[in-house]
Amino acid sequence: MSGAEIINLENLYLFDGGTKENWDFFSKDINNESYCKKIMFSIFNYLTTQPKNELTLDIIDYIIDYGCPHILDLCCQKSFLDQIINLLKPETDAGLENQKKAIFLIQKWAKKFANDQNMSIFIEQYNMLKNSGVTFPPDNFVIKTYDKFTGEKKEGNNQVNNSINSQSN
Fold it and tell me: Which of 62, 56, 89, 82 is CA-nearest to residue 147?
């Protein structure tokens, strides 16, 4: 990762959401597997060392929404999803907002990939949490996320075209 790319990642955090240009750096060389691993290593580091940083989960969500195969392969690893699930544990000190966002995103991703066998880990993790008693938000639930183009917080919901409810109930 070049110095400019690291600075861009830092700017996302330093400027509380960054700008469209900061978010756009994710699309540079996004099909380069080595580059994707470096991005995910940096984000994984923030997730583990700064669990209260709300922007980290927004970046992960942006990357998963972008759909790059290399990134999705890395996000679909159990160790990565375990780090997100660890935010739900009181000892991580992630804060209530990040805990809500983690639950919201796990449900959103399970819905998004409900019909994709290659992404079944999202559904497995969702079902595991649901079976362990975690309460997930209703379909019309709205949560604040960073707008990837303005850097400001906006409302987002977890509605996805396909539904997981029939599979998990």
Answer: 62
d(C-alpha 75, C-alpha 143), whole Å: 21
Tell me the C-alpha distance between 51 and 93, whole Å: 7
- Global confidence as pTM: 0.74
CA atoms of 101 and 6, how far apart (whole Å): 25
Q: Which of 23, 16, 17, 21 is nearest to 39 (CA)?
A: 23
Token code pair at residue 154: 């906006």
Q: Which of 137, 134, 122, 132 is nearest to 81 (CA)?
A: 122
Beta bridge partners of 155: 144
Helix (H, G, I), strand (E, B) or coil at 142: strand
Asked if residue 158 lies in contact with residue 137, where contact means CB atoms within 8 angstroms, the answer is yes
End-to-end CA distance of the chain: 44
Encoded tokens for 23: 């978010």
Over residues 71-113, the pLDDT tens digits come to: 788 888 888 889 899 999 888 888 888 898 999 999 999 999 9
